[in-house]
Design a protein that fits this description.
Blueprint: E1 2-9, H1 17-26, E2 30-37, H2 41-47, H3 57-64, E3 69-77, H4 79-87, H5 92-98, H6 103-107, E4 116-118, H7 122-132
Antiparallel strand pairs: 1-3, 1-4, 2-3
The chain binds adenosine-3',5'-cyclic-monophosphate.
Length: 145
Amino acid sequence: KKEKTLALIKPDAVTKMGSIIEAILDSGFVISKAKMVLLLRTEAMDFYNEHHSKSFFSDLISFMTSGPIVAMEVVGDEAVSSWRKLLGPTNSSIARSELPQSIRARFGTDGTKNAAHGSDSIASAARELEFFFPSSGGRAPKNTA
Ligand code: CMP
């Protein structure tokens, strides 16, 4: 079934965006929207609100606002689960021992600096796509320039 999901290239991997986009397209996905943005702290806290009580929340917000990110709408068959499979395990160190070909294994560093993000469900994908690419009247994160 054709689905849409949100893919983010995080600040640690923006210098490798060419290779990451190549991997996405080589896997048969279509990238239907893309933009580079610099998140405000308030925006990052809103995007990751489900993690607000976690021990790593402040590190995560600092990291995600440390530089530009690339947000993409990715379309394909079972795109939500397929993109997360291509991403590999959340922790890049673990990804390297389990799935050496995954995006996080190839381009990430550790449990926080893990190169990329994928929505974890159809409902999350809808919310996260609306966050970065509002359908109408919404306030989107501003372009880096
Ligand atoms: P992401 O898929 O974007 O979703 C939440 C993010 O929080 C995750 O990728 C990591 O960047 C970060 N994260 C998740 N778990 C941990 C953890 N145990 N320690 C530090 N950072 C984490």
